[in-house]
Amino acid sequence: MKTIIEPFRIKTVEPIRMTTEQERSRFIKEAHYNLFSLKSEDVLIDLLTDSGTSAMSAEQWSALMKGDESYAGSPSYYRFEEAVNNLMPFKHIIPTHQGRAAEAILSSIIGGEGKVVPNNTHFDTTRANFEDVGIKPVDLVIPEGRDPAADHPFKGNMDIGELENLLQTEADNIPLVVITITNNAGGGQPVSMANIRAASVLSKQYGKPFFIDGCRFAENAWFIKMREDGYGEKLIEDIVREMFSYADGMTMSAKKDAFSNMGGWLALNDDDWAEQARARLILTEGFATYGGLSGRDLECIAVGLKEIVDEDYLQYRIRSIQYITEKLDEIGVPVMKPAGGHAVFIDARELLPQIPALQYPGHSLAVAMYVVGGIRGVEIGSFMFGLQPDGSEVAAPMELVRMAMPRRVYTQSHADYLIECFEEIYRRSGDLKGYEVTWQPPSLRHFTARLKPL
Ligand SMILES: *Cc1c(COP(=O)(O)O)cnc(C)c1O
Known about the structure:
five-stranded mixed β-sheet, about 15% strand, three-stranded antiparallel β-sheet, Aspartate Aminotransferase, domain 1
């Protein structure tokens, strides 16, 4: 059969509260035009993030009951550690309450004024955590990765030539090299095994530890299986193990490719760094065998890590993103191609050429999606990234809107509804206007800033 079905049945449901366009216009105004300030009950299809929004399986819900809440040495920790080690055999596995806590702990070890960290593209929390300790984050994705229309099987790849340049010019200032799989901020685009290997070899040549930001490791492995020579017959688990075999450590948000609603970890091989990390963990998160998590969360992650590498799931997952991307492309909506792993990305600069970058075309589109269809996406462009540490504003390299798909949550008819909404948005696109920020915090402004339409 050529139809790919959702490889699950639904046992528990959550109602969607229906709203009208008129009501939604009022809700977004009351939220100061910030989609993060909406009540989620006022959203029909919530594609704000794929983070922590997964539907848990019956297996995970039953594992919850096995959660052992002992302060130290809980069996839940050991099941978690074993599940992580099965895929990512690092010496030290340090649980945290989510990915950014792992980043903050890592930052506390490697930070300092004048330091520089290369990455294919830093995700927003990674960037903010590094900047917070004086590190300058440098994005070195290949040129195709910056062009939403460019076709490349691994648009998330690191530019190895640029990495070598930086390693030469900033040698003493680079505490480690990071690669993010898949490249979230750059469109959920995958990184090839060859690229991971090359970045790792180069880092070692210059004596630098090589870390993976592994939030979507299973989706990345699926793309490698589908697109990279020599991997078509390999098991996803083995592809995952090979990816991490090149790394000295990783940060992870279990809210992505571990099917958990909460959690993360920092894993690494270096004993000295691990000791510093655990000292920091105890100060900010909790004891070494629970981090910021309940025993039951650790159990959910352990089961989630087994389910996420299932090929039927990954095939359905990646295909559902491709389906929406193809349909929007047919309508004429400029989408990031080829489709990434967890989200559909729309190029708002191209869809709304009448809106200048610093009037946030992506944000304008995101508001229109909510008003027209009750769909909540998120701007990834000058509103999210334009504010500089010194308070000035610079246009981001791309003006994207991301619709991130929660895992195992929405069905084909939700996708078809979304596509129909876009037909309407496309018709109205010429009338959409820009926005102005009326209040903002000094960093990560997109979460709380207030705006008004121009
Ligand atoms: C989500 C994410 C993080 C941060 O994880 P949280 O659990 O949200 O703190 C870091 N890097 C990437 C690539 C992510 O997608």
